[in-house]
Amino acid sequence: MGQYDWDAIAIPADAGVDKEWQLQENLSDDFNYTASFSDEGWGQKENFGSGKWNNFYHDNWDGPGGTVWRTSQVSVDGDNLVITVAKNPTDKNGYTGVKSGCVTSNNRVSYPAYVESSLSVANISLASCFWLLSSDNTQEIDIIENYGSTPWFGSMTHISHHSFIRTPFTDYQPRDRNSWYTVSGISNWGEYCWNNGNRIYMRMGVYWKAPKHFEYYIDGNLVRVMYHNATATKISGTWQYQYFNNTYKDANNYTFPTNYESGTNKGYTEVTTHSVSTTYDFSKLEAASAASPNNICVIDPGNFQGGAGFTKNLDIIINMESQDWLAAQYTPSDTDLSDATKNQMKVDWVRVYKPVSVNQGEGSATGASVKVEAEDFINTSGSAYDDSGSGGPGYGVVDGGTVITHVNNSDWAEYTVNIPTGGDYQIKYSISAPGGQYADDPNIKLYIDGTPVSTDKVTITGGYNTFEEQIASMYATGLTAGNHTFKFEASGSEWQYNLDYFIFTQIIYSASNDINASNIEIYPNPTAGMLNITSDRNTPIELYNIVGSKVYQIKANAGTTSIDISDFGSGLYILKVGDYIERVIVD
Prior knowledge:
Jelly Rolls, 587 residues, mainly beta
């Protein structure tokens, strides 16, 4: 595998209990080689870095505002990937024309993953960018979006992500004051990184831990966390845990967080500080998320991604650009565009790691388990058939306090469950349902920490006292160790089922022994229908459901194999490509 520039630099994010970080070589590069390109655009883009990178944007768009991306503006100098900007002879969109470069990875990042770069931003009124973007341009995570020597904006970096609707074009990104982040000792990022020719490099990283959980790192220090309905940001040595106050509808009836209309915070998103601490405390962030009175998701408040958060595989993109809003206010001069002390962004290295289980089995539910009795609820709501004296949904707890009976439409019960080990969990429950006139279409719906996960049909057992253990198609992915709130809700007809207990068992995965992960791409994941598997060799492909039954197999040739798994049912599946194991989620 060789030695990389970052080998002596620890990964600041925590891989989790019984997990270790595994380098994704097909997405990582220390740019210790040379490359140069002619002055061409989309049609003449070229691969470089042993095929890891493509010298252009991931589609035929040639840049925002006054930007024109050209392949000649990208080079590798034996130590750095270099993006150089210059004056373009032709203006664009009414703005000064700027020639710049844009690089896209040929492989995609899937969560969970830690993505980090060591880079030095340009000393100019343009955006230096290192970001992740889905192929359909709807989900974006910005690792750095920095404005060099731009007045005011150049004194900070925007810790941001974007959730898009393409038609009509609608863009959500964080606008709370804490998202505009200042670093001690840096009053002008461009001048700081240029450093009179002795360039300084910043380490900028994101741990995309789960669809609604991002951790941002600067120089190895955790500075901001986005988690469900709350943010945690380190400001002047103090962690602030905040949630958004309200929302409004734009002209297209899309939802956005409300901004302050006056005062020192005018233009920033209205927030409430739920708590503070001197060191990062995930439990405080969880509490702030649970306390959000309007449950406004900080990842996707407009529900542009259907409530799922960020789940799509993302390209790595590195570029400089003259964005519309930036070009309208701050246009770099011709002198600045030709000044070598200002016009280059340099990237020393890029590394991507995934957390993998250490010496564990092959994708089976054999890890830590938690059994919860049905009556161990912390809060309940029942239908008109409630026996309120018994304290639960339906007719309450019976059989010596072991069963919740007669769970009806819209009844629900919440539980606090202590998860001993972070990871993915299978859900199994003991349930009875009589069928017939009492249950036309019984369903059980799961919420985790206030977020709906999925809905599972209840199997008819033939009687209220005929309990059977059923393994649900529901799954709980990316759970952290500690307390979580689980809510089970009934839907469908009245008089549906009795619930005795439910069990969470951790799913254990193994790392690849035969085919290295760098030679495999699996996408999209999650998926609602087609699953594509790309491999560089002939190999068997097998798909197993969560109970270990093989539901699909094929002997595939090198290249891309597409499988229609829409009829297999929603849930968590185990995909084996040779000896390589990966989870697949079917929506």
